[in-house]
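Page 42, continued from yesterday. The earlier attempt failed because a stray header line got pasted into the input along with the sequence. Redoing it now with the clean sequence only.
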Amino acid sequence: MKPVRWTLLTDGSSDRVLLHPVRWLLTQISERPFEGTWADLSYYNAHSQVGDRASASLSRRICESLHAFPCERLIVHRDAEGQPAGDRRREIESAVAATELTTPAVRLVPVRMTEAWLLISECAIRHAAGNPSPRTPLPLPRISKLEKLPDPKSKPKELLRKASEFEGRRLKKFKSREAQAVHRTAELIQDFSPLRSLSAFRQLELDLTAALDTNGWR
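This time it went through. Structure tokens are written below.
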């Protein structure tokens, strides 16, 4: 059976960690094979004027994504970042409609920043930090609190530093590769089902399911 190709367009490069919960969800929804790709638009950014990059519209980025990474289904991510999630979803819908392209899109709108979705596995965080046998406890936030964290972008890095138990020069060296450790955390999470208690994750699952049903891909 030919795999269904999907492309993930995110707000920024750090959000490519969303590839992993999306892949997990697709395995839960369908037995069909899928091939997922993150839309790396660094080439377009590098060849645009500074002003163009700053004002690049979502519609333009959608077109660039589909040109560079053709697919049967596009997943468009926007963090709510304090805005009503419904507003962000309508923003995506308007941007997709403005492109007049035929590739269907699925909306992905976490209530808080993406990084909050990684705070569900102590095991993954400890292994990503390189210290699976800890001496100190790791205080993960409750799942019910993830959508209310004041600064979710910094929380995974904070927990990774704590999990590493490094000090001095070793901690300084570890901080220089924290971004890689955050991505490694996402790779190591085997089960994203705890996120089903979050409204944004449930909505993503519903949207993915509806998208697959539309094309008979379940």
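Notes: The first strand starts at residue 4 and ends at 9.
Reminder to self: strip header lines before submitting.
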